[in-house]
Design brief:
heterodimer; A: 271 residues; mainly beta; four-stranded mixed sheet; B: alpha+beta; Alpha-Beta Plaits; 2 domains; 14-stranded mixed sheet; 18 strands; 22% helix
Chain lengths: 271, 298
C-alpha cells in the first residue's frame, strides 16, 4: 500500500503546527477523520484538508509534498512508522521522537531532534541550530536515536545532548557539542568556533583537524588506538549515509575538555 | 550394546540444571586472547569447590568478533544466577581487565541479563566513559596500556551441567589416549565445554561421603585399586578409568558432544585396550537430566 500523501496547497503565511500528523496519531483513522483534524496555524485553527490535498494510503507511512520551512513540529512524539517530506521543514522536527524514521528531503529548521529519545532522522540537506538540543530552559537534550545531516548543521549542534548519535556529513557550525552531557557527534568536514564549549562528557569525533584547531579549553591526551571505534563504525554500516562508507579507523588524537568545567568530554581527531 | 568391541553400559549419566553465559574475549592477537581466556577459565573445573565451571569453547576468527580482533569464546556455568554473576565479575576483573590489550563482550543474547562490565567500570575512578552502540552499553575504562572495553551486560541462560561418560581401559595410557581422542572430537561441537584439566577428570566422584563435611567423595566403585575392597564395578582386566564431564547450553548439545566423544573412544576399540564406556549414575540423586548411553549411541 502506498503512503498517505499530504500535499501542501499553498505556501503558508503562518507557521503550522504539524504535530498531530504522525503515523501513531493517524493509525486506524479514516480519511474523513484525518481531513477533519484541526491544526494550529498562527493564531487560528484550520482543518487538514484546508491546508493539504490528501491522497489516501497507509497512515504508517506519511508523505508530505511541497513541504515548507513554516511546517513545525513534524514527527513530534513519533513512535513508529515513517514520515517523509519533499522540501524544507520548520522548527522542532522530531521533537520527543521515540521511534520510526523521519526523512527530510530539504533543510530542517532549528531544534531538529530536540529531546529526541529514539528512531532515525535523516536530513538530506542542511540542519538548523540546536540539533539534538534541549528546549530553552531545559537541560536534557537528545537521549537516544540517530540524526544524519547530509549537509551542514547550524550552531549549537548537540547542545545539552545526553545520548545517541548526531552525524554531520558536511560542516558543523559554532559551539558544536556545547554543554554536551554524553552521546556522540561526528563531523566529516569542518567545525566552527568554540568546539565543545562547556562540554561535560561525550564524544565529538572528527575525521580532520578543525581549520581553527582545537580550542584552548581542551587538553591534548595524545594519540591512541581506541577499541570502541570499530564497533561504532560497524553500527554505521546499516545507515543510508556517507558514514556507512567511511573507512573504519581506530587511531585518533584525543583531546579532553571542557577543562573550564568537569573536563570529561573528548574530541577525537582521526590521525 | 557393543561398538568395535567396546561395551556400552546400559546406564545413564545424570546432570543438573545450571545458569550459564558465553563471553567473548578479544585481544591484540590470538596468543593474548587465549592467555586471557585461560586465566579467566582457570580453577573452574567443578562447582563442588570452584564456584563455577568454565572452559574455552573455541577460538574466534577476527571476522567473528565484535571489534574485529582475534578472540576466544568462553562458557561459564554456576548453580544459580547470583553465583554466576559473582564469578563472572571476579574473574573478569582479575583475569581479563588485567590482561594486556583485552576487551570483553557478551557472547549470548537473552532476556535475562546480568552484569558484565557494569561494576568493573568503577575501576575507572570516574574517568570511565559509557558508549551506547546499537542498543548495547559499553564501558571504556582507562588502563595503563590504553582502554579496556567491555560490554555492560551479558545474557544468562538455563543450561545443563554434569553430562559425563567413563572410559574403562586396560591401562592408564590407553584410557588417556582414548580420552584425548574424545576431547578432540568434542571440541568441534558448539555450546559445550569440558571443564576439567584437558577436558578429562581422573578423580570422578560419587554423591556423599563418610565424612559429614564433604558432599562428594571418590567414586570407589570405579577405582581400580579398590577392586577387592569395595563393591567394585570393574572387571579384572580394567586397570584405569577416566571420565569426561560436559556442560552445555542445552541437553541436546550435550547429547551431541557425548555421541561424538564416545564414538571417538569406540573407534580406538577393543584392540587399543578400551573395554567399556559407562557413566556417572547416582541413582537419580544428582539431577533431573538423564543421558542414556545406549540411546545416544543408537
Amino acid at each position: 500500500m502506498s503512503a498517505l500523501t499530504l500535499t501542501l496547497k499553498a505556501v503558508p503565511m503562518q507557521r503550522i503546527d504539524c504535530s498531530p500528523l504522525t503515523p501513531d496519531a493517524l493509525a486506524e483513522q479514516s480519511l474523513a477523520d484525518i481531513a477533519a483534524i484541526e491544526l494550529s496555524v498562527g493564531n487560528m485553527m484550520q482543518r487538514v484538508d484546508a491546508l493539504f490535498d490528501i491522497t489516501d494510503g497507509d497512515s504508517g507511512q506519511i508523505q508530505i509534498n511541497n513541504s515548507h520551512a513554516n511546517l513545525d513540529f513534524v514527527g513530534r512524539n513519533m513512535q513508529s512508522g515513517s514520515i517523509t517530506t519533499d522540501g524544507d521543514i520548520g522548527a522542532y522536527a522530531g521533537i520527543f521522537m521515540e521511534g520510526g524514521e523521519l526523512t527530510i528531503n530539504g533543510d530542517s529548521g532549528i531544534y531538529t531532534a530536540c529531546e529526541m529519545a529514539g528512531g532515525l532522522i535523516n536530513v538530506d540537506g542542511n540542519g538548523g541550530d540546536f540539533i539534538g538540543g534541549a528546549r530553552p530552559g531545559y537541560k536534557n537534550g537528545m537521549t537516544g536515536g540517530t540524526v544524519i545531516i547530509t549537509g551542514d548543521s547550524g550552531d549549537r549542534t548537540g547542545d545539552h545532548m545526553r545520548r545517541g548519535f548526531i552525524l554531520i556529513e558536511g560542516n558543523a557550525g559554532d559551539y558544536c557539542g556545547s554543554r554536551m552531557v554524553s552521546g556522540t557527534i561526528s563531523v566529516l568536514a569542518d567545525v566552527g568556533a568554540h568546539l565543545g564549549y562547556g562540554m561535560k562528557r561525550g564524544t565529538i569525533l572528527l575525521t580532520q583537524m578543525p581549520s581553527r584547531g582545537i580550542t584552548a579549553n581542551f587538553n591534548d591526551c595524545g594519540s591512541h588506538t581506541l577499541a570502541f571505534l570499530p564497533l561504532m563504525f560497524a553500527s554505521f554500516k546499516k545507515l543510508d549515509s556517507q558514514f556507512a562508507q567511511l573507512e573504519p579507523f581506530s587511531r585518533v588524537q584525543r583531546y579532553a575538555g571542557d577543562i573550564g568545567g568537569i573536563g570529561m568530554g573528548e574530541v577525537l581527531v582521526k590521525i | 550394546m557393543i561398538i568395535n568391541g567396546v561395551v556400552i553400559d546400559e546406564t545413564f549419566a545424570e546432570a543438573f540444571p545450571m545458569k550459564g553465559t558465553r563471553l567473548i574475549i578479544t585481544a591484540h592477537n590470538a596468543k593474548w586472547a587465549m592467555i586471557s581466556a585461560q586465566a579467566f577459565s582457570g580453577f573452574a573445573t567443578s562447582v563442588i569447590a570452584c564456584g563455577c565451571e568454565a572452559g574455552i569453547e573455541r577460538e574466534l576468527d577476527p571476522s567473528e568478533t565484535p571489534d574485529g580482533r582475534h578472540g576466544v569464546s568462553i562458557l561459564i556455568f554456576a548453580m544459580g544466577g547470583k553465583g554466576l554473576a559473582k564469578q563472572v565479575e571476579t574473574r573478569a576483573g582479575q583475569c581479563v581487565l588485567t590482561s594486556p590489550t583485552s576487551a570483553l563482550f557478551a557472547g549470548i543474547e537473552s532476556e535475562k541479563q546480568m552484569a558484565l562490565g557494569q561494576n568493573l567500570r568503577f575501576f575507572g575512578d570516574g574517568f570511565q566513559i559509557s558508549k551506547v552502540i546499537d542498543g548495547k552499553r559499553y564501558w571504556r575504562i582507562p588502563v595503563m596500556d590504553g582502554e579496556f572495553l567491555t560490554e555492560e551486560k551479558t545474557g544468562v541462560v538455563e543450561s545443563v551441567g554434569g553430562g559425563n561418560f567413563l572410559v574403562l581401559a586396560e591401562s592408564q595410557g590407553q584410557a588417556l589416549t582414548a580420552c584425548e581422542a574424545a576431547i578432540e572430537a568434542m571440541r568441534q561441537i558448539p555450546n559445550v565445554i569440558m571443564p576439567f584439566p584437558g577436558g578429562v577428570v581422573r578423580s570422578g566422584s560419587k554423591v556423599g561421603s563418610k565424612y559429614k563435611a564433604l558432599n562428594a567423595s571418590t567414586n570407589d566403585a570405579f577405582c581400580p585399586t579398590l577392586k577387592g575392597q569395595t563393591k567394585s564395578d570393574l572387571s579384572p582386566e580394567v586397570e584405569s578409568v577416566m571420565e569426561i564431564v560436559i556442560d552445555g547450553l542445552t541437553k541436546e548439545d550435550i547429547d551431541e558432544a557425548m555421541k561424538v566423544g564416545i564414538q571417538a573412544v569406540c573407534d580406538l576399540g577393543f584392540e587399543k585396550g578400551i573395554r567399556r564406556v559407562s557413566a556417572g549414575n547416582y541413582g537419580g540423586k544428582l539431577g533431573p537430566f538423564h543421558f542414556h548411553l545406549q540411546e545416544i549411541m543408537a
